[in-house]
Write a structure and sequence with these properties.
This protein is mainly alpha-helical and about 100 residues long. The chain has helices at about 5-25, 30-65, 70-80. It contains three helices and no strands.
């Protein structure tokens, strides 16, 4: 192998190594591709959760429009309402704690 061939081969190896570095670490290289895939996967998961929440809200709205029993259960739970035929008893406790020695 002549000296000129060795120089050309060395330059070709250095050039290929440089291209490899650009492919892996460049602006649109493999590292950036990995980051973008990870970000996409996160967005897909957020989108899935939002879709599920939208579906739950849609079902809740439909029940509020059409189901009187559901409206009553919401009023009881969130507003503390009672039915006309129900009674609430509040019991006060005046028990004092006794310290034992």
């Amino acid at each position: 192998m002549t000296r000129r061939q060795k120089i050309i081969l060395s330059l070709a190896v250095i050039g290929l190594f440089h291209f490899l570095l650009v492919i892996v670490f460049g602006d649109n290289g493999l590292v950036e591709l990995s980051r973008k895939r990870s970000h996409r996967d996160q967005l897909v998961e957020v989108n899935r959760r939002l879709t599920e929440e939208n579906y739950r809200l849609f079902k809740s709205i439909e029940r509020l429009k059409e189901d009187p029993a559901y409206i009553e259960s919401i009023a009881r739970r969130e507003l503390g309402m009672i039915a006309p035929d129900e009674m609430i008893f509040k019991i006060k406790s005046d028990l004092k704690q006794v310290n034992t020695k």
